[in-house]
Amino acid sequence: MSTSTSQQIDDAASRADEKRQELQRDAENAAHRAEKKANEIGDEIKKGAKNFEKAASRAALDAKKEATQFWSTFSSNPEYWASTLASVNLVLLGAGAVYAYTKRDEIRHTDRGTIAATVAGIAALLGVQTYAANEAAKAQNSGF
């Protein structure tokens, strides 16, 4: 090998080493920038999560306040809860009627005393509810 060839090899090796060092610095800089950007994004996500948590907490408190206000209005006004009680009774009696209609063959063979006792129980329950509702409405209206 001649001196010039050896010199060319050494120069090429030197340039390759310089290029390797340059690429390594670029890679380290890129890794540093990526880590910095990831930390910034993480901080933004944490901030957004805190803001969402605060908003959700406010919404829950508002919902609780509205529900409490509604219940206060609903339970203190006999016009609201008396009609609701009547609707619930109607639904229960309707469900019983539908059941009795779908099972009418079995009910025909049931003891008539059991049927009479059931009807009497329902009538007594409705009577007690009506009495209690009227007394509660009187007590609430007398306070106004």
- What's the structural domain tally? 2
Summarize the main sheet: none
Instruction: Give the helix level as a range of percent.
Output: over 70%
Q: Given the helix and strand composition, which structural class is it?
A: mainly alpha
Kindly, what is the distance between the CA atoms of the first and last residues, rounded to a whole number of angstroms?
116 Å
Outline, from the CA principal axes? elongated
Name the average pLDDT: 83
Q: How many beta strands in the DSSP annotation? A: 0
Strand content: under 5%
What is the CA-based Rg, rounded? 41 Å
Low-confidence stretches are none
Element-level helix/strand string: HHHH
Helical run tally: 4
Task: Please give a structural write-up.
With 144 residues, this protein is mainly alpha-helical. It has two domains: 76 residues; 68 residues. It starts with a helix and ends with a helix. The model has no long low-confidence stretch (mean pLDDT 83).
List the helices and strands and how they pair.
Layout: H1 3-76, H2 78-102, H3 104-108, H4 112-142
Helix pairs in contact: 2-4
Which properties best describe this structure?
membrane, 144 residues, 4 helices, 2 domains, mainly alpha, transmembrane helix, elongated, transmembrane
Provide a brief overview of the structure.
The chain is mainly alpha-helical. It is built from four helices and no strands.
